[in-house]
Amino acid sequence: MECATNKHYLLFLFCLMFFSPLVLCQLNYRFYDATCPNLSSIVRSNVWSAISNETRMAASLLRLHFHDCFVNGCDGSVLLDDTSAFKGEKSANPNKNSARGFEVIDTIKSALEKACPSTVSCADIVTLAAREAVYVSGGPFWPVPLGRRDGRTANETEANNLPSPFEPLQNIIDKFINKGLDINDVVTLSGAHTFGFAQCFTFKSRLFNFGGSAGKSDPTMDTSLVQSLQKLCPNQNDSDTKLVPLDPATTNRFDNMYYRNLVSNSGLLQSDQALMSDNRTTTLVLNYSKYPFLFLRDFALSMEKMGRIGVLTGQEGEIRKNCRVLN
Ligand code: HEM
Ligand SMILES: *[C@@H]1O[C@H](CO)[C@@H](O)[C@H](O)[C@H]1NC(C)=O
Ligand SMILES: *[C@@H]1O[C@H](CO)[C@@H](O)[C@H](O)[C@H]1NC(C)=O
Ligand SMILES: *[C@@H]1O[C@H](CO)[C@@H](O)[C@H](O)[C@H]1NC(C)=O
Ligand SMILES: *[C@@H]1O[C@H](CO)[C@@H](O)[C@H](O)[C@H]1NC(C)=O
Ligand SMILES: *[C@@H]1O[C@H](CO)[C@@H](O)[C@H](O)[C@H]1NC(C)=O
Ligand SMILES: *[C@@H]1O[C@H](CO)[C@@H](O)[C@H](O)[C@H]1NC(C)=O
Fold first, then answer.
1. How far is the CA of 117 from the centre of ligand 2 (A)?
2. What's the rounded Cα separation, in Å, for the pair 12 and 18?
3. Residue 318 CA from chain centroid, whole number
4. How distant is the alpha carbon of residue 104 from its chain centre?
5. How confident is the model over 133-170, as pLDDT tens digits?
6. What is d(CA 198, CA 302) in angstroms, rounded to the nearest whole number?
7. In terms of Cα–Cα distance, which of 79, 69, 202 is closest to 131?
8. Is the pLDDT of residue 9 over 80?
9. Which residues are catalytic?
10. Which segment of the chain is annotated as a signal peptide (predicted)?
């Protein structure tokens, strides 16, 4: 009973006939079928128009979901604005001047508040938006279990601890394992870097004074890529925030090119190329580079796993009315 709100009472009785009551405390593929039947089409149309206005938004929405799930679970915490009384996650290093897509989530939320007020969580909106963004970009489609509730807290410290492109692969693997994911998920989900952009400072150390020796570049980076990146990101501070595509070959397409790039020593981030130099991850990189459909299938499976990290369900948390502020 704990997990059924009054509003869902009839649905609850209905479900009771078919499922164990425990199911109601878990995510469920038909969670909003009765309470917000147009949910998917509302999310889909808004994500489509955001991406047709700006192609990069697809990548940004996917990354937003990752940054949400890895901090306090997939609870919409990344969406909360800072106030004088409340410190959110937006000013943490991995998000500051980097995480984007908040306005798209706001637009979807307002449309949903009109169609089905106080029903759909911001955490579920981010999850669905990420799914649509991948699909629109040529990636896989997968069913998304729903019923996440929005958190009442955020954690800037934890957001500062998101995987960094400067840390050793082993640290990144440990961070994934801490969230209940595994080493294969690191390889599979990193495939998200098949679209979107990175600022020069996130990989510049590979171009000019690698390992502290002036004039040296990262030996695991293809030399012609080094040269072209040196032009795009000159060795001066004012190039730090310039944007470069993570996958220059098929910049906006969600495909397996990320892995083909790694095989030809053309990963952009050091943490990307590292997947090629660790004997626990190389085989899967090679498999994905050869079998695009294997990657697309596995990506969908890993996304569902990521979407279940630390979720709030039942009566936990709340359904925010505005994704930027607590009710
Ligand atoms: C494995 C550890 C990861 C590291 C170290 C990492 C690091 C980064 C960095 C440094 C950027 C560029 C940010 C900027 O310059 O502002 C970036 C962009 C991006 N990341 Fe990751 N990331 C990781 C995993 C993931 C995962 C799991 C996903 C999603 C499933 C993801 C999706 C993206 C996307 C789509 C972009 C482009 C965003 C845009 O253009 O707005 N990343 N990542
Ligand atoms: C759902 O959306 C369709 C069109 O997308 C619309 O015709 C219909 O009226 C909507 N239904 C509700 C209950 O909002
Ligand atoms: C369209 O994209 C631009 C950035 O390219 C952004 O500044 C603008 O707000 C977007 N407009 C809409 C309606 O989303
Ligand atoms: C944030 O997370 C850190 C590390 O997990 C934890 O030590 C700290 O207590 C959390 N802070 C808040 C305000 O929840
Ligand atoms: C460039 O950036 C580095 C590191 O952020 C800083 O130490 C240095 O003072 C900056 N140089 C200039 C000329 O601003
Ligand atoms: C994998 O690499 C590690 C360290 O680089 C090495 O100790 C280990 O023997 C290797 N394992 C296999 C199966 O090659
Ligand atoms: C890669 O593919 C080969 C052959 O299809 C298979 O035997 C192997 O288990 C795969 N390895 C991984 C890590 O997926």
1. 15
2. 10
3. 22
4. 15
5. 999 999 999 999 999 999 999 999 999 999 999 999 99
6. 23
7. 69
8. no
9. 67
10. 1-25
- What spacing in Å lies between the alpha carbon of 196 and ligand 1's midpoint? 8
Query: How crowded is residue 2: how many other Cβ atoms within 10 Å of its Cβ?
Result: 9
Question: Is 75 one of the annotated binding-site residues?
Answer: yes
pLDDT at 214: 85
- Atom 2 of ligand 7: nearest residue by CA position: 287
> Which 8-state DSSP code applies to residue 303?
H
Residues 5 and 315 sit within 8 Å (Cβ to Cβ): yes
Ligand 3 in contact with 104 (CB < 6 A)?
A: no
pLDDT tens digits along 170-217: 999 999 999 999 999 999 999 999 999 999 999 999 999 898 888 899
Output the residue whose Cα is nearest ligand 7's atom 13.
Answer: 284
The reported pLDDT for the residue numbered 212 is 87
- Tell which atom from ligand 4 comes closest to the C-alpha of 158: 2
The average pLDDT across 230-249 equals 97
The rounded radius of gyration (Å) of the Cα atoms in the chain is 20
Helices 57-69 and 292-306: crossing angle, nearest 10°?
A: 50
Cβ–ligand 4 contact at 113 (below 6 Å): no
Q: Does the annotation list 245 as a binding residue?
A: no
Residue 32 DSSP label: T
How far separated are the first and last CA of the chain, in Å rounded? Answer: 24
Q: Which domains does the chain have, with CATH numbers?
A: 23-163 (1.10.520.10), 169-305 (1.10.420.10)
- E strands, the chain, where? 197-199, 243-245
Count of all residues that appear for the chain in the document? 327
Q: Which ligand is nearest to the CA of 273?
A: 1
Judge whether 127 is annotated as a binding position: no
Are 141 and 130 in contact by the 8 Å Cβ rule? The answer is no
The residue among 119 and 85 whose pLDDT is bigger is 119
SS3 of residue 312 by DSSP: strand
Question: Is residue 8 predicted with pLDDT exceeding 60?
Answer: no
Q: Would the CB of 251 count as within 6 Å of ligand 4?
A: no
Instruction: Say if residues 199 and 241 touch (Cβ distance below 8 Å).
Output: yes
